[in-house]
UniProtKB/TrEMBL annotation:
InterPro entries the record matches: 6-blade_b-propeller_TolB-like, NHL_repeat, TRIM-NHL_E3_ligases
Keywords from the named record: Coiled coil, Membrane, Repeat, Transmembrane, Transmembrane helix
Listed PROSITE patterns: NHL
Claim: Transmembrane helix is one of the keywords in the record: yes
Top-rank taxon: Bacteria
Name of the protein this chain belongs to: 6-bladed beta-propeller
Amino acid sequence: MKKVLYLIALIVILGTVVFASDMEYIFERQVGGNEGKLPSEFDYPVCITSDTYGNIYVTDWNNSRVQKFSSEGKFLLEIGNQSSPKLKKPIGIDIDNDNNIYVVDYGNNRVIKYDENGNLILTFGKFGSKDGEFRSPRGIFVDRLKDEVIVADYSNYRIQIFDLDGKFKKAIKCYDPSTKKNYNPRSAARDKSGFTYIVFTRENNIWKINENGEIVLKFGGEGSEPGQFKSPRYINTDNLDNIYVTDYSNNRVQIFTTDGKCRGYFGEKGTEPGKFNNPEGIFVNRKADLYIVDSENNRFQIFRAPEITHLKSLAAWYKTSNDQEELENVYKKIFDIEPDNTEAKKYVLASLVRELENANEDEEIRAAAQKVLTMDNTQEDALKALEQLKEKQIRLEKKKKVRLIIVLVILLIVIIILIMVLKPQKKQKRKDENNKIIMW
């Protein structure tokens, strides 16, 4: 009973919500909390992203700026309201693999691309309904695998896809053949398999569409039960293909699988750490940590995933980036925590087999083979290596015996020779002695 009470107390203090064994998020820190125009103050922040260095970027809606913070939450830079072109009601934000920043300039119906220091690179879009034009654009998502930019073109009932230079590639209408209606997309995100997830705030649901724009799944519905929404806003995906959605009026974040099943949720209305007052933007980094904009509380909050989730997310990242060395290092750590993890076991075993292949000395080979067989006692390379060592040992023993026999034969020959040499000498000596006696 005491342990249960202690766990409950710990959850309350840390703002931790447990809804699955591997999805336990811990409140780490908040930044902001005061309404204003000074650095680290906000007037309704909306969206958030983070670069490869851990720096954090937040759109500050009513202050018409983007604020940049260090990974520890220290204010670094203000972007967009001090030099041309000036931002007007910035909303969606994301970053590419080179740490360039893409900001949806809502009030000017365009997207502005900056470098990590806030220097202008380019702008694209203007008011209109033609390809590459916008009417009240909202969310933006950079697909870092395909180098594509997805923009939710709200009042044009579509999402638009661009390359990283802002060149129009494709538009997908948010039209539902079953209802014969167009719908307003608030935000969109894409998973590793290429499926796009679109949030429809008014309808309280999410569409999953394929690359052809066909609806393959709908999930959600109005309500407060798990999997239901009250005014969902922004969406993001992680390396493990979990889907994260800010549930605005329910003051929570929900996590879904790619087939639309709710894995769980956390959050409730409040100003304390771990609570929300109308959450908007959400970002998930490569380690599956969550950055959530708590808009009416004028702050953002960071939640850390547990170690095993960190590692699994990193493993998925290194797979896509083809970093084999880092991938194996991560899987070794996963294997230490979850020795029954099939994927981790496969990579650790492959690493041990390679260690066996590179071994030269007999003891190194024997030790490496035994490590392999500890994980898989049927592994052919290891069994073959030990068999070869055994055969080698037998050959060495035979050679030792042959050498010993040769040595013994040589010794015997030497002895025989000595005997043959010494025996005549001894006879001659006796003869000489006898002759001396006679002469005497």
